[in-house]
Specification:
single chain, Hypothetical Protein Ta1238, Chain: A, Corrinoid adenosyltransferase, EC 2.5.1.17, transferase
C-alpha cells in the first residue's frame, strides 16, 4: 500500500531523484525522461476522460492504471535483481499488451478502411485522444533511447507501441466511428 502523508521531501532540490530501487540519479536521466513522459501521457488521458462516457471511459481508466504500472516498471532498473527486492516489483505483462491488441481489433472491426491520413480533430474526445497518441509516441521514443543504454522490460516497450495504436483507433471511434474523421487533403492550400 502507498502512503503519502508528506508531499515535499526536499531530496530532489539538487536535481536528483530516487528510482524504485532507491538509486539516486539525475532528473535528466533517460530513465526519468521515459517514466516522466509516461506520467505526462497519463495526465493527458485524464483530460480525454473528461469527454468520454461508457465503455470508452472505462477503457481509458484501465489504461491509466496500466500506465502507473508502466511507470513503476520503468522506474525500477536491473530486472535481474527483482528476486532480491523486498516486494515483487510491478512489471508490464504480455497479457496487458494482448488486451490492448484485442481491444484494437474489436474497435477496428466496424470501421471503414482509411483512404487518407486523419487530421487530429472532429470531436473534443477525438482531438484529446490524438494528443494522447502523440505523447505516447514520445514516451515510446524515450523508452527506446533508454533501452539503448540500459535493460528494460520488453513488454513495457511493446505496451507503449500498442497503446498509441489503441489511441488512434479510439480517436476514430470517438468521431462517430470514423464518419466524422477530419481527413488530410494533400496540397489543399497550394
Amino acid at each position: 500500500m502507498v502512503v503519502l502523508n508528506k508531499i515535499y521531501t526536499r531530496t530532489g532540490d539538487a536535481g536528483q531523484t530516487a528510482l524504485g530501487d532507491g538509486t539516486r540519479v539525475s532528473k535528466t536521466s533517460a530513465r526519468v525522461a521515459a517514466y516522466g513522459t509516461v506520467d505526462e501521457l497519463n495526465a493527458t488521458l485524464g483530460m480525454a476522460r473528461l469527454h468520454a462516457t461508457g465503455d470508452m471511459a472505462e477503457a481509458l481508466a484501465r489504461i491509466q492504471n496500466d500506465l502507473f504500472d508502466l511507470g513503476a516498471d520503468l522506474c525500477r532498473p536491473d530486472m535481474e535483481r527483482d528476486a532480491e527486492a523486498e516486494y515483487t516489483p510491478l512489471r508490464i505483462l504480455p497479457a496487458q499488451v494482448d488486451r490492448l491488441e484485442s481491444e484494437i481489433d474489436a474497435m477496428n472491426a466496424d470501421l471503414e478502411p482509411l483512404r487518407s491520413f486523419i487530421l487530429p480533430g472532429g470531436s473534443a474526445l477525438s482531438a484529446h485522444l490524438h494528443l494522447c497518441r502523440t505523447v505516447a509516441r514520445r514516451a515510446e521514443r524515450q523508452t527506446v533511447a533508454l533501452a539503448a543504454l540500459e535493460g528494460i522490460n520488453e513488454s513495457a516497450l511493446r505496451y507503449l507501441n500498442r497503446v498509441s495504436d489503441w489511441l488512434f483507433v479510439a480517436g476514430r471511434i470517438a468521431n462517430d466511428s470514423g464518419r466524422a474523421d477530419v481527413l488530410w487533403v494533400p496540397g489543399l492550400t497550394r
